[in-house]
Amino acid sequence: MKSALIEDKILKSPILEIDNLSVMRSGKLILKDINMTVDKGEFIGIVGPNGSGKSTLLLTILGVLKAQEGSIRIYDSNPMSRNLYGKIGWVSQAASNLPKEVRITIRELVYLGTVNAKNMFSFSNKNRRERVKEAIKMVGIQDIENVDVGRVSGGQRQRAVIARALATEAEFILLDEPLVGMDHESRNSLLKLLDRFCHESGKTIIMVSHDLSAIRQTAHRMIFLEETIKFDGMAENFPDLESLAIMRGITQVHEDDHNHSYSDTKERV
Ligand SMILES: Nc1ncnc2c1ncn2[C@@H]1O[C@H](COP(=O)(O)OP(=O)(O)OP(=O)(O)O)[C@@H](O)[C@H]1O
Ligand SMILES: [Mg+2]
């Protein structure tokens, strides 16, 4: 009975716990009083205007940026701890903007994702090759796997970068604007793929996106970030634009014209 309780606690303990986090960049307070908890299997969409701190939050979770105040625990460890190697996948904003002079194929790019400091010498090549093959298949770029990354479209490159994150077998994947440069169809299939990933493989995903309608349809939970968290809840309860404007403290400029009061939200979220 006791061991079942301990097991239950381990299974239920959150993957990520952020307490009272504040982050400064170049002397300016970018994030303040951030509190959030993420459980295994969640698919969380983070939205917010340009410059609202979305990338800063992901970079702080990864441990690239340091907290001014508060704490972050990932799998009960501090960011960048050794025991987190290989557990966290990362797709950066504009990750697909790889320099044109890098002459590697799509498959080689995905393969690079399987190599980390911990497994560099220990992991079998066969195992890696299988994971690469599987990840390439998952994002549907088998037909271009031998093409140079510089010669494929932006959307295809984006898929390759996502395949690279999937090939790591990371359990927790952070994506910053992965939908940029993708056509409508590719966006939908990628979102479905990520959703399946959470449901079937028990992965946990945090994804930043400006595509509010797309992410709202797919993510289970939505966070609206603007220096601090202004909304955190089920995607179906995400506020409409008018409520969002009120929440953000944007007052109506023209009494007879609602659009003016929250056009900012409309364009940039
Ligand atoms: N290297 C940096 N040094 C100092 N300030 C920075 C740096 N990078 C970003 N900032 C500032 O931090 C704030 C938040 O930036 P961040 O990139 O996190 O926003 P974002 O929500 O990801 O925006 P976007 O939607 O444009 O990607 C902005 O005011 C930005 O000017
Ligand atoms: Mg950003």
Q: Can you describe this structure?
A:
- This protein has about 270 residues and is α/β, with parallel strands linked by helices.
- It has 2 domains: about 1-240, P-loop containing nucleotide triphosphate hydrolases (Rossmann fold); about 240-269, no CATH class.
- The chain is built from 9 helices and 9 strands.
- Strands 5-6-7-3-8-9 form a 6-stranded mixed beta sheet, with helices on both faces. A 3-stranded antiparallel beta sheet has the order 2-1-4, with helices on one face.
- Strand 1 (about 15-25) and strand 2 (about 30-40) form a beta hairpin.
- Helix 3 packs parallel to helix 5 (about 155-165), helix 4 (about 125-140) crosses helix 5 and helix 8 (about 240-245) crosses helix 9.
- It is globular, with a radius of gyration of 20 Å.
- The chain binds adenosine-5'-triphosphate and magnesium ion.
- Adenosine-5'-triphosphate binds near residues 26, 30 and 53.
- Adenosine-5'-triphosphate (ATP) binds near residues 54 and 56.
Give me a quick take on this structure.
The chain is of the alpha/beta class.
- What's the architecture of the largest domain, going by CATH? 3-Layer(aba) Sandwich
Could you name the ranges where pLDDT drops below 50 across 5 or more consecutive residues?
Answer: 256-268
- Hetero groups bound? adenosine-5'-triphosphate, magnesium ion
CATH topology (fold) name of the largest domain: Rossmann fold
Overall average residue pLDDT:
84
What are the salient characteristics of this protein?
269 residues; three-stranded antiparallel beta sheet; 2 domains; single chain; 9 strands; alpha/beta; six-stranded mixed beta sheet; binds adenosine-5'-triphosphate; binds magnesium ion; Rossmann fold; 36% helix
